[in-house]
Design goal:
Blueprint: H1 2-19, E1 27-35, E2 41-48, E3 54-58, E4 64-70, E5 76-78, H2 86-91, E6 100-101, E7 107-108, E8 112-115, E9 118-121, E10 130-131, E11 144-149, E12 153-162, E13 173-182, E14 186-195, E15 199-200, E16 204-205, E17 208-209, E18 223-226, E19 230-231, E20 245-246, E21 258-259, H3 269-274, E22 282-286, E23 298-301, E24 307-313, E25 317-321, E26 344-349, E27 364-365, E28 371-381
Antiparallel strand pairs: 1-2, 2-3, 3-4, 4-5, 6-16, 7-10, 8-9, 11-12, 12-13, 13-14, 14-28, 15-27, 17-26, 18-21, 18-23, 19-20, 19-22, 22-25, 23-24, 24-28, 25-26
Bound molecules: alpha-D-galactopyranose.
């Protein structure tokens, strides 16, 4: 009698402990992910939760190497483009699969800007312009990693110190990027940075999503909703003109769920600038509400698998890019071919070329200030 009473109490305590500690269900494993040419080892951190979601992060480039999530029938597939081998990341750096982008996401016109009356020239690597922090941006750096955990999440914290003048940018910039996963299938990315001189910063992540699974065809039938009534229109070199243009009555109107393929391939001037000949998306949408993590900013949905992705962000804009430069020549994980329009990116960001556009939200960071951006990619399923 006494014994069974004790057992019941223990079960009771066990139940309380388990229900009060959902965090225990998220695990982080560490494994080797090859070696850089200079001998430095690259590690992979895998975050798993009890819903069958697994996220792989490698310390080279802070790259999101995999996101495995169940579909509406429980079938798990990997929904981001990437490689199995570190050498393939080194050989294909210009696609930025899954990488942390810094110090400055997207383009800076002719790599030039001024701060406090001083002119800076950063290296150009995209025609006449600088793209994604230059040829040796944060996507090419080995980050210092350590596991982290909180009340209902676990993850990995990555740190990188970019010295004064690296890739032409002023100030030593100390950056931390925290990737965490919880039981709500939310991959949260939190970026912080500090500088010792006035500088410009615009950090993002360059994951390429295909909700049907990476390498399983194109994203044309997947639907997207972007809560943005305006974009920043661009010139032929994808530099913003400085104005905001309404999306109404253009192929950029994604205010309601719309198949990405509906206007992909349309010969509008903007789409032809983004992808000469074919006509693709590669623009910055300006959110109607910005800086709010509690309001969904973008929703993507794949009717065939039922997988849904929601993005929440503190950033004022997002670069929605449709893999226009993929041409079927890249073989990714498990030898799968990544076709043209085989994925889309949702790069939460401040607007391209902001250092040269006084009317855009400022990307300037001063000593004593903290740069902070948080973006959540939340996965769920719905019936088609
Ligand atoms: C961003 C740019 C694109 C392209 C991709 C990577 O989305 O805006 O033009 O460079 O990155 O290929």
């Amino acid at each position: 009698m006494k014994a069974s009473h004790t057992l019941v109490s223990l079960l009771g305590i066990g139940f309380v402990l388990m229900s009060g500690s959902a965090f225990a269900a998220v695990h982080v494993d560490r494994s080797a992910f090859g070696v850089l040419p200079d001998g430095r080892p690259v590690e992979k951190y895998t975050l798993h939760n009890s819903n069958g979601m697994r996220v792989g992060i490698i310390t080279y480039g802070g790259i999101v190497q995999s996101i495995e999530v169940p579909d509406a029938r429980g079938v798990v597939d990997d929904v981001v483009l990437g490689f199995d081998d570190i050498q393939e990341y080194l050989d294909n750096g210009n696609v930025y699969f899954g990488a942390i982008i810094g110090r400055f996401g997207n383009r800076i016109k002719q790599g030039r800007f001024e701060l406090e009356g001083k002119a800076y020239q950063v290296p150009v690597n995209n025609g006449p312009n600088s793209l994604h922090g230059g040829p040796e941006g944060f996507n090419t750096k080995l980050w210092q990693a350590k596991p982290i955990e909180g009340k209902d999440w676990k993850g990995v914290s990555l740190n990188y110190v970019s010295v004064d003048g690296e890739m032409g940018f002023p100030g030593t910039l100390t950056t931390t990027v925290r990737y965490t996963l919880n039981e709500q299938n939310e991959l949260q990315i939190e970026y912080t940075a500090h500088t010792d001189k006035p500088t410009v910063v615009n950090l993002t992540n360059h994951s390429y999503f295909n909700l049907a699974g990476a390498g399983n065809g194109t994203i044309k039938d997947q639907k997207i909703t972007i809560h943005a009534s305006h974009v920043t229109p661009v010139d032929a070199e994808l530099i913003p003109t400085g104005t905001l243009a309404p999306v109404a009555d253009t192929p950029m109107d994604f205010l309601h769920p719309t198949a990405i393929g509906k206007y992909l391939g349309s010969k509008s001037e903007q789409l032809m600038f983004a992808e000469p000949k074919a006509g693709g998306f590669d623009f910055n949408w300006v959110f109607d509400r910005s800086g709010q993590l509690d309001a969904v900013a973008v929703t993507a949905f794949d009717p065939a698998s039922g997988r849904r992705l929601e993005m929440y962000t503190t950033e004022p804009g997002v670069q929605f890019y449709t893999g226009n430069f993929l041409d079927g020549s890249i073989k990714g994980k498990q030898g799968k071919v990544y076709p043209h329009w085989g994925a889309f990116t949702l790069e939460a960001q401040h607007f391209p070329d902001a250092p040269n556009q006084p009317s855009f939200p400022s990307t300037r960071l001063n000593p004593g200030e903290t740069y902070k951006q948080t973006t959540i990619y939340k996965f769920s399923t719905l019936k088609g």
